[in-house]
Amino acid sequence: MVVFGAAVAVVIALIPLEPKPLTQDLPSRPAAGADKTPSLGANLKSSRREGIGRESQTLDRLSQTRTDPPGRERCSLPSAERFPTVGAAWKPCRSTMIPDETMPACGKVHQRGDGDIPGMEARDARGQERRSRTRLIRLLLKPLVLVVAAGLGACASVPQGLLRPVAAAPGTDRVDMLAATTRARSPDPGALFTGERGEGVSFNNIVVSIPRNREVGTIQLPRSVPGNPATDFVVTSETPLSKPELINWFRSTSGRSKRVFVFVHGFNTAFDRAVFRFAQLAHDADADAAPVLFSWPSRGYLLDYARDFDNASYSRSDLADLLRVAVASPSVREVVILAHSMGSWPAVEAVRQIGLKDGRISPKISNLILASPDLDVGVFRRQVEDMGTKRPRITLFTAQHDRALQLSRFISRGATRLGGIDPTQEEYRSQFAGLSGITVIDLSAVNAGDRINHDLFAASPDAVRLIGGRLLQGQVITDSDVPAPVAAAGALSSAAALLVTAPIRVFDAAAVP
Question: Cα–Cα–Cα angle for 87, 88, 91, nearest 5°?
């Protein structure tokens, strides 16, 4: 992984912004006394390259020459009328380029200019295309270097075995969560689960201890095992559960609100990182709900994007079954789902599958929150349409400076991901036209966490408060929930308006079209 990151950085550094002039690659003349009888092929190749070099040098001189000889005026005729023979060979003739077979129709001075010489437009266009392609490659590879660097830094500083239970300490907070996973069990008791697929779904009751003296949106992982509960996120209890025992767990943890908060993590996420991220989010959002983590088998490696996507797709039916269990519990009145990044794919698919197979989506599933969703925009629209009209409210957290989604866009060959859209653009406004009950929260002006900007939903204190204070309460986020709007940026449709705020923008599409 270190070698890969270094290699990518070197490649980007070596890619030139401008192509080299043709004459820079031409061979120098042989020195005196050198062998002057090379092979016939070498002679032909050398002559051809020297001829091209002389032509290029002549064209460069001509492009800088703009003074007409005395008594002669520059021709203003179009190229087609000036040189009627197309495709004639060109040769240098002092200060002008004249075709071998056809002289100018007007007899005036003809110097090089835009469109004067047949074929020059195509040559310039190819050069511009190469330069644009080079800039695009460097732009798209930059997020890859940042993501690799961030991944390497995280891997180098966090020890293994973080889920080994330790004794609880006074003066700390706790999050009692249910973890449902399609991962295979790990022989390491400090890891619990691997990044491979398991046999069926495993259920565990995990209690996470959280220190109180820290900033909202941060996760303090121990530097060595076992961690210190007074300063670190640690696990104090881990108990396997069977599926029939879930009813009792919902009864004991849903509280008076009888609300369940389901979290689906994203790409490149090991099981322990998913546990601690969800514990931080549930705690900081002050969620009055029973926290349920659904963890699909992400391998936790940057280069396993394709395999992670397959594993996420593999787990969507199990997530749908978990949602059915929660809805069927008499102790549950409402289910809110929050999915991050690639986890948005199995989350949306699970809700869609329930609607198609069961004929309807239970009204208990009230809100589907997609944070930095790594989804194709058109595919998302079709998924929402398949859910029918009686679907849960959908909230999107987007950010145009999300570098992880920029990398995903590069992998998907230029298709903008749902979490990276600019909702003011017409191409995206048309995708949302006619879809009611969708709210887009643009965090492009927010900076929190690392430079990747992929975890803003959990790292930004403002975003966390919106999740806990509004979305988990089943409410719609409007401009009154964020700082006062400074300008109106337009409308997506007759039923939706985009309000620009500082620094959060809210696109409210919840009204009936």
Answer: 130
Question: Edge to edge, what strands does the sheet with 487-493 contain?
Answer: 234-241, 193-210, 173-185, 290-295, 259-264, 334-340, 365-371, 393-398, 438-442, 505-509, 496-500, 487-493
In 3D space, the residue among 364, 437, 158 whose CA is nearest the CA of residue 276 turns out to be 158
Peptide bond into 226 cis (omega under 30): yes
List 239's β-bridge partners, or say none. 205
The packing angle between helices 344-358 and 305-314, to 10°, is 30
Model pLDDT for residues 374-423, shown as the tens digit of each residue: 999 999 999 999 999 899 999 999 999 999 999 888 887 778 899 999 88
Question: Taking the domain 162-509, which CATH number applies?
Answer: 3.40.50.1820
Rounded CA gap, 449 and 441, in Å? 18
Q: Which of 237, 241, 251 is nearest to 201 (CA)?
A: 241
Token couple for 62? 């001509």
Helix (H, G, I), strand (E, B), or coil: what is residue 157?
helix
pTM of the model: 0.69
Geometric angle at alpha carbon 456, from 138 and 398, rounded to 5°: 70
R_g of the chain, CA atoms, integer Å: 31
d(CA 11, CA 6): 9
* pLDDT at residue number 23: 40
Q: What SS3 state is found at 459?
A: helix
Residue ranges of E strands in 37-152: 90-93, 96-99
User: What are the domain boundaries of the chain?
Assistant: 1-23+47-65+72-157, 162-509
Which among 248, 242, 267, 268 is positioned nearest to 180, based on CA atoms?
Answer: 242
